[in-house]
Structure formats: structure tokens, C-alpha cells
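Q: Please design a sequence for this.
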């Protein structure tokens, strides 16, 4: 990243471009759910308010279209797992608004 800044002629302190990378293990049984959640990461419904963004939840119609091609049985299974991750993500995304 430092090289990218240098190529643009931007001088940035080396410690400013260092990013911490969170590494975590995903159990094999959860892999499809996690990759599906990442696939639909642009399908959130968000409300802009004077207080900031309020994350409402996933747009399930858009999520279904994004994950098109899965069987109905697999989609129902993924949807239940997506809802679990969505609920946890909403707590984090809206934490700033609750403060």
C-alpha cells in the first residue's frame, strides 16, 4: 500500500498505511453460509437519518437474486444462516447509533 501511495506522489508515514488483518477460522460446515453472507454484502437496506446511517437488514429479494441458482432447499438453509449472521451484524453496525 505504501508503494501505491508513493506511485501517486503522496507521502504517507509508514505506520499510517499498516493495517491489522483479522484472521479467523471458519468451520467447514459454515463455509457456504459465510461465503454467501459475503456475496450479499452489498444488499443491505440502510436508512439515512440526521443521526447517521441506520442499518435495517438484508434485502432478501436482492439476496435471493444474488444467490440465484441455488436449490430451494439450499436457499432456505442459507437464509436461516444468513439471518443469524445478519442479526449479529446489525448489533455491530448500529452500535454507534445506540451510543
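A: Design:
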Amino acid at each position: 500500500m505504501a508503494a501505491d501511495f508513493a506511485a501517486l506522489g503522496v507521502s504517507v508515514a509508514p505506520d499510517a498505511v499498516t493495517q491489522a488483518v483479522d484472521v479467523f477460522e471458519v468451520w467447514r460446515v459454515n463455509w457456504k453460509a459465510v461465503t454467501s453472507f459475503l456475496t450479499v454484502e452489498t444488499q443491505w437496506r440502510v436508512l439515512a437519518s440526521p443521526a447517521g446511517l441506520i442499518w435495517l437488514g438484508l434485502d432478501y429479494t436482492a439476496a435471493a437474486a444474488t444467490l440465484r441458482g441455488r436449490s430451494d432447499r439450499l436457499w432456505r438453509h442459507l437464509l436461516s444462516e444468513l439471518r443469524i449472521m445478519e442479526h449479529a451484524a446489525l448489533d455491530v453496525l448500529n452500535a454507534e447509533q445506540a451510543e
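Q: Thanks. Anything notable?
A: Residues 21-98 form one domain. The chain is about 50% helix and 15% strand.
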